[in-house]
Each structure stands twice: as structure tokens, then as C-alpha cells.
Design a protein that fits this description.
Chain lengths: 81, 276
């Protein structure tokens, strides 16, 4: 696989991971976490682990983002710390 | 305290990065995993289980115990969400909102004279968040059957292509959650009620564990699907293939129901009335 593509995706993984932890807005954090999951899914697919990529895409990027958004909707949107 | 946390995280991260150096490099043919178990799966998996997708064969047959307890973990997550969040009894909202379908006029009704369900020309709407978007609702209504069909394909075709019970179950659950998001929670609960969540979730785990127990009753080890050959009247290799399918259906049911169960409890704060 192209190493440039790998590098771009890896950079995005690190950037979204740090962003998801650092951001104060919890809804934004949930969406960044979904983006992180999708980047991980691309990484699995590049490495040839198609089954893992499929699971990551459906569970990580799909279902858990919905759960986070539902939880944010029912609690608070800003973090206290 | 925050500073201390950062130091701990940095040290742990540095240790983890340091120890990755001892791992065999990626796709190294001389690594222990590639010399010990993997050749057996790659060379004999097809002959032993008749499942061309090795990942499915390993997941549901060779490592069946792992998958059984993963399914149990999903089941436990659903049950725990139910016990922690579910509030039985009446809705805490003191007044409900209804919308006249033809004109879009909204009326508020006090709780003690509540209209039951959708009331002729009026439909119940959520108080906090009431989107009235025809395009989204119609698009989702058209899309959902195809999503569900794809999920069934993913479950049934797990032997031959990427996919299987977990992925198909998640997609099935997501299709119902899409219905709940695009319309409202009550529409989704009309289609698949609370009792159905609990029953389907348990039935999925029971189907998996029951298949294993049936193999034991028929004289072989727990989850050794070759024993099913006597009931299914096929040779033991095909019996293992069919056993994988039965188990995948169980996983799919459990995961789908657990997903919807958790979502309904979280999004409605446990009262199953007004959800996201």
C-alpha cells in the first residue's frame, strides 16, 4: 500500500484521538470519536483485516456514536473539567 | 493532579512503545503465530469446516468459546443498562404535545387527560426535540428495508465473505435505531417492543449455548458441531458448517436486541416514552 496514504491516515488517527479527549464540547467529542473509529477502520482494511474493519465500521463508527449522542442528549453537552 | 496524570500517561505510553520493539514485525512468516496455529487454519480449515472464510471458521468453530462469552458480554451490557436505567410506571412529563397532521398545528394536553397513542388526525410528538422533516422520514423509510436485507445477507453469507453474526446484528439493530431517530422512539417501539428486546437478546445467547449443549448431548465436546451430523443427516464437515450458521444467527439476534435495548433505555432516560 502507498506509505503516503498510511501516513495521512495515521496522522488523522492521532489527531482525532487527541481532539476527542481535549475538546470541551461532548457532542463534538462523540463525533470526533466516530471519525477516529472510521480512520481505524480504513487502517484495518489497508492491513488486510477486512472482518475487523467491517466490525469497526459498524460498531465503532455507527452504533457507539449513536449511543454517545443519545447519552449527551440526555445529560449535558459541556464537560465540567 | 492533572499534571500527575499526564506524567503517568506519558510513562505508560513510552513503556508500551518500547515493548512493541520486541514484537515480531508485521506479517513476519517466522513469528510464533505464523508458524504454530495459523498454518493449520489456512491449510486444513476448508477441509474441516467447509467455510472458505477462515476468520468465520476460527471465530465460530475453533474459538467458539471466546465468541460464546463475547455474546454473553453483549447480553450482560443490555441487561445492566435495563436494570440501571429503566424506570417503571408512568411518564414523568406533566403535559404531552400533539400535532395536527394536516395543518401542523401543535396542541398541549395536560397529563391527567392524556390522549392514548396517535389519535386520529393528531400525532404525539416529543416536547424537547420535534423535527418535522418529510424528506428525512421518507428517505429513511425507503432505506430501512434495504439495510435490513443487507444485514441478513451479511449474517447468512459470513461463511464466504467478510461479516457474520456481530456485524449483521449491529446493522439490523442500527436499522431500527435509524427508524427511532428519523421518526421517534415510540414508532420504533411499536415495531419491536420492550419485551421483544429482552426475549430476543436471551434467545440469541440461548441458541448459541444450546447448540453447544446439544453437541454434548450427542456425545461430543461442547460446541463441537460435528456431532450435529446425526440430526442433520449430513457428513460431519458440513455439519460444522451448518453449526457455524446456527451460532451466527444466535449472535446476530443477541447483538441486535442488545443494541436496541441499550439505545431505548439511554435515549429515553429509562421511561420509554419520549426518546431521541
Amino acid at each position: 500500500m502507498l506509505w503516503q496514504l498510511d501516513l495521512v491516515i495515521l496522522t488523522l488517527v492521532v489527531a482525532t484521538a487527541i481532539g476527542a479527549v481535549a475538546i470541551k464540547d461532548l457532542l463534538g467529542s462523540a463525533i470526533l470519536f466516530g471519525a477516529y473509529s472510521f480512520m481505524m477502520c480504513l487502517l484495518w482494511a489497508i492491513m488486510g483485516a477486512v472482518d475487523v474493519a467491517f466490525t469497526e465500521a459498524s460498531v465503532g463508527a455507527g452504533a457507539s456514536t449513536v449511543f454517545f449522542v443519545a447519552a449527551v442528549f440526555r445529560t449535558t453537552r459541556r464537560t465540567k473539567d | 493532579m492533572k499534571f500527575l496524570g499526564i506524567i503517568v500517561v506519558v510513562i505508560t505510553g513510552a513503556l508500551l512503545v518500547y515493548t512493541t520493539g520486541d514484537f515480531p514485525s508485521w506479517s513476519d512468516p517466522a513469528s510464533p503465530a505464523s508458524t504454530h496455529v495459523s498454518p493449520h487454519y489456512i491449510e486444513k480449515g476448508m477441509h474441516e469446516t467447509a467455510a472458505p472464510n477462515i476468520v468465520t471458521a476460527v471465530l465460530a468453530d475453533y474459538r467458539g468459546f471466546d465468541t460464546l462469552f463475547e455474546t454473553t458480554v453483549v447480553f450482560c451490557a443490555g441487561v445492566v443498562c435495563f436494570f440501571l436505567l429503566r424506570i417503571p410506571g408512568r411518564s414523568p412529563f406533566t403535559e404531552c404535545q400533539y400535532r395536527h397532521k394536516a395543518t401542523g398545528i401543535t396542541v398541549r394536553v395536560k397529563h391527567d387527560r392524556k390522549m392514548s397513542g396517535s389519535f386520529g388526525e393528531f400525532e404525539r410528538i416529543d416536547t424537547l426535540w420535534t423535527p418535522h422533516d418529510l424528506i428525512i422520514q421518507t428517505a429513511c423509510r425507503i432505506l430501512i428495508p434495504f439495510i435490513q436485507l443487507f444485514a441478513l445477507y451479511v449474517i447468512a453469507h459470513g461463511h464466504h465473505s467478510p461479516g457474520g453474526g456481530f456485524q449483521g446484528g449491529v446493522i439490523l439493530g442500527a436499522s431500527i435505531i435509524l427508524l427511532a431517530i428519523s421518526h421517534d422512539l415510540r414508532t420504533a417501539l411499536d415495531r419491536l417492543g420492550e419485551k421483544a428486546h429482552a426475549i430476543l437478546c436471551s434467545v440469541g445467547v440461548l441458541l448459541y449455548a444450546g447448540t453447544g449443549a446439544l453437541c454434548m448431548v450427542l456425545g461430543l465436546n461442547f460446541l463441537d458441531y460435528g456431532a450435529l451430523a446425526r440430526i442433520l443427516h449430513v457428513d460431519p464437515v458440513m455439519a460444522r458448517s451448518h453449526g457455524i450458521l446456527v451460532v451466527e444467527v444466535g449472535v446476530g439476534l443477541a447483538v441486535m436486541a442488545a443494541l436496541i435495548w441499550i439505545y431505548s433505555n439511554v435515549s429515553s432516560r429509562g421511561n420509554y416514552d419520549e426518546g431521541l
